[in-house]
Design goal:
This is Replication-associated recombination protein A. The chain has about 425 residues and is of the alpha/beta class. It has helices spanning about 5-10, 20-25, 30-35, 55-65, 80-90, 105-120, 130-135, 135-140, 155-165, 180-190, 195-210, 220-230, 240-255, 255-270, 275-290, 295-310, 315-325, 335-345, 410-429, and strands spanning about 45, 70, 95-100, 120-125, 145-150, 175-180, 210, 215, 380, 385. Strand 9 and strand 10 form a beta hairpin.
Length: about 425
């Protein structure tokens, strides 16, 4: 075994060796053609860990033959940046790869940005966070390309693993290894599109396997143990975590139980119950709403049970809540109504509270003109309860209508009542 990790040794040396990301840097892309023609633009590479950001930077450096400097924004100081600037003055141009670029501070920016703007430094920044949220505008404005990388496909990972197994110089091709195609496929399945984890897992499996007659014998049991140990679900509170929350809500809203369970499983493997239960409660009222008002109580109970149980048992009530929301009738009418009212108020569509609705629980209120309110409970209306025809909105916005019912589930009944009461008011005006 060599001293450098397999994942490090197998980094692509040129852009033609990049595995996956063909939509970003494949031979048909503008970026590939620019690099081949000697023009390297400053760029931001955004995506989850292990999908090729660092590898692409090294491949671009290998293709361009530019002096290459790699820094990490979490550990680099102003002096490191000044050293890059000095290097650019000596060589004419350098390629700087800056990992975790969203952590770049102002002093580092001030030292570096003019040289990026002049072209003396080609900046390739990598981040796991959404650059439009977490990367400073000054950096973004100087990066002509912002590329979102995708998780590698199963076939991409299989090809990478097979290359590592057969490459005698950089990979494991100089070793005798008995590993089946099915085991390679399982490793690819178990690393969830993360190339670094896949190569690290492959190397760990080989090292941990029994060596018989100079041959490493890979057993299925060892593969499964390593998959469980490594974990494949990403970091808490990063952009990927919030993308999972978003995907869960949109899958529930779209009534896809299987997709919702998939994203719920990922979220629970991250272990952040608080974030998951908070999102589920919002969904119960935002997306199910008046179509099935009982769901709100059911989801609250499931979330409380999950908090008391803790993981892994918490998955049981939460799965039930998610399944119920997926299969329930849905309405966002109440949510849209409050947003419409807030928007109208912010636009200045307001007026004075009618006098008959103002507080009368103090001496002198009558002198201010308060009063005249009619108590609806004193006027029964069929089986509805009580209702009287009086204005509640300010006269300036009397015709405003924020609520628009959705004809679904229990809200069909509420919609009928709403329209009936509107007709009573029209008939009496």
């Amino acid at each position: 075994m060599q001293n450098e990790p397999l994942a490090f040794r197998m980094r692509p040396r040129t852009i033609d060796e990049v595995v996956g990301q063909q939509d970003v840097i494949g031979p048909h892309t503008a970026l590939y053609k620019m690099i081949q023609n000697g023009h390297i633009p400053s760029m931001l590479l955004y995506g989850e860990p292990g999908i090729g950001k660092t590898s692409i930077a090294h491949a671009i450096a290998g293709t361009s033959k530019l002096p290459f400097i790699a820094l990490n924004a979490t550990t680099s100081g102003k002096k490191d940046v000044e050293d890059v600037v000095k290097e650019s003055r000596m060589t004419g141009k350098v390629l700087l790869f800056l990992d975790e670029i969203h952590r770049f501070n102002k002093l580092q920016q001030d030292a570096l940005l003019p040289h990026v703007e002049s072209g003396a430094i080609v900046l390739i920044g990598a981040t796991t966070e959404n650059p439009f949220h977490d990367v400073n505008p000054a950096i973004r404005s100087r990066c002509g390309e912002i590329k979102q990388l995708k998780r590698l496909t199963h076939d991409d990972i299989v090809n990478l693993l097979n290359t590592a197994l057969t490459d005698p110089k950089r990979g494991l091709g100089n070793l005798k290894i008995r590993i089946s195609p099915a085991q390679v496929e399982r490793i690819a399945d178990g690393t969830n599109g993360d190339a670094r984890k896949a190569l690290t897992m492959l190397e760990s499996i080989i090292i941990a396997s029994d060596e018989i007659d100079d041959t490493f014998i890979v057993e299925d049991q060892m593969v499964e143990q390593m998959i469980k140990r490594v974990g494949v679900f990403g970091d808490k509170k990063g952009s990927h975590f919030f993308n999972l929350l978003s995907a869960l809500q949109k899958s529930v809203r779209g009534s896809d139980v299987n997709a919702a369970m998939y994203y719920l499983a990922h979220l629970l493997e991250n272990g952040d119950l608080t974030a998951v239960t908070r999102r589920l409660l919002v969904m119960a009222y935002e997306d199910i709403g008046l179509a099935n008002p009982e769901v709100g109580g059911h989801v609250l109970a499931a979330c409380q049970a999950a908090d008391r149980l803790g993981l892994p048992e918490a998955r049981i009530p939460l799965a039930q809540a998610v399944a119920e929301m997926c299969l329930s009738e849905k309405s966002n009418s109440a949510y849209r109504a409050i947003d419409a009212a807030i928007s109208a108020i912010n636009k200045g569509e307001t007026g004075d509270i009618p006098m008959h609705l103002r507080d009368t629980h103090y001496a002198g209120s009558a002198e201010l003109g308060h009063g005249g309110y009619r108590y609806p409970h004193d006027t029964p209306l069929g089986s509805f309860g009580g209702w009287v025809d009086q204005d509640y909105l300010p006269k300036e916005v009397r015709k405003a209508e924020y609520y628009k019912p959705v004809i679904a589930g229990a809200e069909k009944k509420y919609a009928g009542i709403y329209e009936k009461l509107k007709s009573f008011r029209k008939n009496k005006k």
